[in-house]
Amino acid sequence: MHIRKLCSSKVYLIFFVRCDRIISMKAIIKKSIKSVLALIISASVLISLAACSRGGEKTPSETTETTSNVVRVTFPEGSSVSQIAALLEENGVCSAADFMAAANDPQSLEGFSFEIENPENRAFLLEGYLFPDTYDFYRNENPSSVIKRFLKNSEAKLDSDILARCSEIGYSLDEILTLASIIQEEAGNPAEMGTVSSVLHNRLDSDSFPKLQCDAATFYLRDYVKPYVDEERYEQLKELYNTYNCEGLPAGPITNSGIEAVRAALYPEETDYYFFITDGEGVYHYAETFAEHRENCEKAGL
Predict the structure, then answer these.
(1) Cross-strand partners of 256
(2) Taking the CA atoms of the chain, what radius of gyration do you get in angstroms?
(3) Is there a contact between 260 and 189 (Cβ–Cβ < 8 Å)?
(4) What residues contact 86, with CB distance under 8 A and at least 6 apart?
(5) Residue 64 above 50 pLDDT?
(6) 203-212 residue pLDDT tens
(7) How far is CA 192 from CA 113, 140, 161, 272, in A?
(8) pLDDT in tens, 10-60
(9) What CA–CA distance (Å, rounded) separates 47 from 98?
(10) Rounded distance between C-alpha atoms, residue 125 and residue 118, angstroms
């Protein structure tokens, strides 16, 4: 009996010793696995970061290659076709002569909804349709492609609300762009655009004052058209654009207007004015009658 108990005790002791060893080995294995996993995860993170770094940040040479061929150009509101052409050439986009040729090419309008009824009477066919904005171009880009960038933006800006308003007041979009271009040039201060627009609308609706008599159209021909056409063509255009000679609107827009001028053409102030002048300080003086206008001219020293 004693021997059996002793044997039993030894077996019992050995059993617990072995269990203890088993538990210790499991703990070691678990720790090892955790360490290995930690190393694997750390390595994966480092590899991922390295890959992201290579893919997300280009080297200077790569950046130069992808951006040096692109140029960003801002065109101020009221820029004429010839001024836009000069800016494009200055920035290496295309030659001014090639751009002006494209701006006179009826094929440039293919694929767009714009309708110009008297293309043969225009100084530049697309004057008024090249929306002044900031654009990104490729250097040495095809002029036709450059024109399309402008026209796509113009279609987006001259949206359905604007077209609906044109119909509502009985004007075509082309007529509104022509009117807006005069407002753009005559109203140097955007705050005056609505009132200047009212003067022009009142004259267009009047039998007593059928001529707009705006200097801006004359200056447009002299400064931005005459240098690029021959004398015979210039004389023809004077008959079509000089608002002291022709009744109603000139043959087409005299500049490329911003959206404020377009909206002023569509929503004139309600006034009874038929005349306006600006004095040497840029203050606008409006009049309902010619007598009042003469008085304003004297006060302004004109």
Answers:
(1) 79
(2) 38
(3) no
(4) 96
(5) no
(6) 999 999 999 9
(7) 31, 40, 23, 15
(8) 333 333 333 344 334 444 444 544 554 444 444 443 334 333 333 333 322
(9) 52
(10) 9
What is the rounded distance in angstroms from the CA atom of residue 91 to the CA atom of residue 70? 10
Would the pTM count as exceeding 0.90?
Answer: no
Using one digit for the tens of pLDDT, what is the confidence trace for 202-244? 999 999 999 999 999 999 999 999 999 999 999 999 999 999 9
Distance of alpha carbon 300 from alpha carbon 162, whole angstroms: 37
User: How many other CB atoms are there within 10 angstroms of residue 300's CB atom?
Assistant: 15
CB 254 within 8 A of CB 127: yes
Q: Are 204 and 278 in contact (CB under 8 A)?
A: no
* Strand stretches in the chain, DSSP E: 70-74, 134-138, 275-278, 284-287
Answer yes or no: are the C-beta atoms of 262 and 180 closer than 8 Å.
yes
For the purposes of burial, counting CB atoms within 10 Å of the CB of 260, is it exposed (0-12), middle (13-18) or buried (19 or more)?
middle
Mean pLDDT of 165-193: 96
Residues 250, 179: contact at Cβ < 8 Å? no
**Amino acid found at 63:** T
C-alpha 238/C-alpha 254 separation (Å) is 12
Instruction: Give CA–CA dist 231/45, Å, rounded.
Output: 74
| Residue pLDDT, tens place only, 276-292 | 999 888 889 999 999 99
